[in-house]
Design goal:
This protein is an alpha/beta fold. Helix content is about 30%, strand content about 30%.
Length: about 210
């Protein structure tokens, strides 16, 4: 069976952060052997703004073709959002690709099987808890870890669109990239996040308040 994994690499041949200059290598496994199928030099132009970064990621996505697994030592923001949007599985790994390619494929196969099993079970969508004075609290961590097919947008967007809150505290295992993008594109929300434990982050959304 033919499988492909894209890896953003440094000149040393190890994984690089997506905001570092490097080369995206698409590895293909055929007959149990991994080899580089194609490559693309890549430098994310963060200083050029959102439009340019999205344009760059559109080129990356075209280059990836049918490859739906992407690895870097660190990847957030626009690149993460654009890859996730097309159904790409994003991994953060340090080291040389030869040391983790087979491991990632094994975990991808396990996750696919778990998702098929989870889809047969009813999913309870969490609802924000009102803790007073327009402040709400919500944990989406269990849903993220269950990989049930329910998206964070499906959970959060109905509440955010209603808008009848001042602050929403979200406990998660990673901040949804689309939420970061909402804050970056001048929405009516102020966003901040902090790590509160292993695999646990607290993100806070507040309504912008005019002080004039």
């Amino acid at each position: 069976m033919t499988r492909e994994i894209a890896v953003h690499t440094s000149r040393r041949g190890e994984t690089a952060a997506i905001n570092e200059s490097g080369t995206i290598l698409v590895y293909r496994r055929q007959m149990g052997i991994w080899g580089v199928e194609r490559q693309l030099a890549f430098t994310l132009k963060q200083d050029k703004g959102l439009r340019e970064m999205r344009s760059q990621m559109a080129e990356v996505i075209e280059f990836l073709e049918n490859c739906k697994i992407f690895v870097a030592s660190s990847i957030t923001g626009v690149p993460y959002y654009e890859l996730e949007r097309i159904g790409c599985s994003v991994w953060e790994f340090a080291g040389k690709p030869v040391d983790f390619l087979e491991y990632i494929i094994e975990k991808e196969d396990e996750a696919e099987q778990e998702q098929l099993t989870a889809q047969a079970k009813p999913v309870i969508i969490p609802i924000p808890e009102h803790i007073g004075n327009g402040h709400y609290r919500l944990s989406i961590k269990a849903v993220q870890e269950a990989d049930s097919g329910v998206t964070t947008k499906q959970i959060l967007m109905p509440f955010l669109k209603r808008g009848n809150f001042y602050q929403l505290e979200i406990i998660c295992n990673h901040v949804p990239p689309w939420l970061e993008l909402e804050a970056m594109t001048g929405s009516s929300l102020v966003y901040e996040a902090e790590k509160i434990g292993p695999g646990e982050i607290k993100a806070i959304l507040r309504k912008r308040v005019c002080t004039e």
